[in-house]
Amino acid sequence: TYSANATIMVAYSNTDAINQSAYSYSNSIAETVASFIKDDAVLTSVAEDFKVTTKDIRNNLTVNQKSGNLIISLSYTSDDRETAANILNDIVLTSKATADKVVNNGTEDEPVHPFLYKNISLLTSADVNKVSKESHTFKYTAIGAALGVVLAFIYVFFFEMFNNSFKSRDDVERTLNVPLLGVVPHYEIDPNKQEGGKK
Prior knowledge:
By secondary structure, the protein is an alpha+beta fold.
């Protein structure tokens, strides 16, 4: 698979009505934007553009926003290099367009999302030439090793459960409910060797 990357910056337009510092206010906006990007309000439009489902886009999209950081990192994975870059760029542009959407109330335009209006700006777009190819060798090796261990435990468990052979004299006495008088030893004889250790 291929992974495309992009970053956006979150700012703030007005803090007059907010009882917080400008930076804290911006940080709360950043957390909201990170959730907003993965909302149906954004992804439904992108899904229609590329004729895929919203669920597929959400599953392949990763949004990282660290607390106290106003820069949000986005990545999108796809089995095609250009598709990964194009879908991610569409997600960023659609997020900004949706956040900046306005409606006319009869006298003036009002933002549909006042908390996000004019607060999203693109830092780096997804460049198809910089899309990285992801290797899943380690992941699949780890999954295979874990699966092998689980299957081994299952095999041993069922083998022991259905193994009804006698393993000790206690097993015989307990099963037959009679005392065991003696045990006949079992010897392995090599037919290629004669008596005295000579062939």
